[in-house]
Amino acid sequence: MTEKDLPQKEVSELLEEVRELYLKTREQFGDAKQEENSFFA
């Protein structure tokens, strides 16, 4: 592995982490919205 390959690998890992965090956050907001809707229903 060369120095040129390393940053790309780190970027890919960071993007993967961000994507997982985004999905978790979206799930939490989705759950909150569902609870809100059933509360007001």
Structure description:
It is a single chain. The chain is rod-shaped and about 55 Å long. It has 1 helix and no strands. It is mainly α. It has one helix spanning 5-40.
Topology:
Blueprint: H1 5-40
What would the average pLDDT be, to the nearest integer?
A: 80
Task: Report low-confidence residues grouped into runs of 5 or more.
Answer: none
Task: Give the N-to-C terminal Cα separation.
Answer: 58 Å
Rg (C-alpha, Å):
18 Å
Helix fraction by DSSP (H/I, runs of at least 4): over 70%
Report the total helices: 1
Task: Let me know the largest β-sheet.
Answer: none
Key descriptive features of the protein:
1 helix, mainly alpha, 41 residues, 88% helix
Briefly characterize the structure.
This protein has one helix and no strands.
